[in-house]
Amino acid sequence: MPFKRSLVLTISACVAAVACSTSPTGRSQLAFMSERDMQDMGQQAFSQIKAQTPLSRDSQAIGIVRCVSEAITSRLPADQRGAGWEILVFDDNAVNAFALPGNKIGVYEGIFRAARNQDQLAAVIGHEVAHVIAHHANERVSTTYATQMGVNVAQAAAGGSGTYSGQLMGLLGAGATVGVILPFNRKQESEADVVGLDLMAKAGFDPAQAIPLWENMGRIGQEKPPEFLSTHPSDETRMRGLEAKLPDAEALYREAQAKGFQPACGF
Length: 267
Hints:
The structure is a single chain. The protein has 11 helices and 5 strands; from the N terminus they run H-E-E-H-H-H-E-E-E-H-H-H-H-H-H-H. The chain is globular. The protein is mainly alpha-helical and 267 residues long. The protein has helices at residues 2-17, 35-52, 59-73, 78-81, 118-133, 136-149, 152-157, 162-171, 186-202, 210-223, 235-258, and strands at 21-22, 28-29, 86-90, 97-100, 104-108. Helices cover 58% and strands 7% of the residues. Helix 5 (118-133) packs across helix 10. A 3-stranded mixed beta sheet has the order 3-5-4.
């Protein structure tokens, strides 16, 4: 099987070299799954979530989420926009949102408990889109298979047994806990914070609103930690990271506003 043999050698080389790609912040990543494989897994996971979670009928919430999401994704580089993003709002009070490989965005109605204006919602969606464009899911899948499954990933990527394919899907969270993908680690979360800040700013949203957004999340977390915060950095760590990045993001925001990127998403 030339393909499997080649993939095994590629994986071995990547593991030996520690990383096969670089994140938007310059961090080395182990990411040996193909873009097509990741897109397929994202599509399957999204389909399962749609099948198990009712869609929102709140036209105002749907309109706001679409407006903010489209403003952000339309400003991505052409090779990251793909054929467009599928954006859905779910009828669920969870304070949660996610994005998946293959250009999928899901937002739960409960997010509006924390996101009080369009800029705060943009901080949430920018953060989630950042996970996708930084290839964090690929990194998680690759690392898990390199450390736990070894060359079995070759069988899955080459169309192997349903068992292996199911294990790959599990890494995207298409399981019993609907709508919650396996948590990213704190390094990835911090990276999504700073990349997401730039994404929202380039779309014309005020990046300074990311700080009150996370403050709102923290207050909600005092009652019961939102799923969105399950593995995120501590409030203090997050605030320091955001404040350090804010001057650069505010420059991008002013530039975007001057170019006419001034979203009005109906809050």
